[in-house]
Design a protein that fits this description.
By secondary structure, the chain is mainly beta. It is built from one helix and five strands, in the order αβββββ. The radius of gyration is 11 Å and the shape is globular.
Length: 69
């Protein structure tokens, strides 16, 4: 297993006006921050896409609200 794959975690996210999903998100070094560009994908077999975090939800889920870059 590569280092890059170990940095991915399964998190809930909402992309624009679309319904809520749970997908694989690459965790950046230092954690998530608003206005940060991240890579995500719905399943492990898909190509990664980029999105910007515009909001982080409250605990315990910390759902990410994303918008396309």
């Amino acid at each position: 297993m590569s280092r890059k794959r170990k940095r991915e975690t399964h998190l809930p996210y909402k992309l624009g006006t679309m319904p809520r999903y749970a997908g694989w998100v690459v965790v950046p070094i230092g954690g998530f921050r608003v206005n940060q560009i991240i890579e995500y994908r719905e399943t492990l077999g898909e190509k990664r896409q980029q999105a910007r975090i515009w909001k982080i939800g409250p605990p315990p889920e910390y759902m990410l609200y994303l918008e396309h870059v």
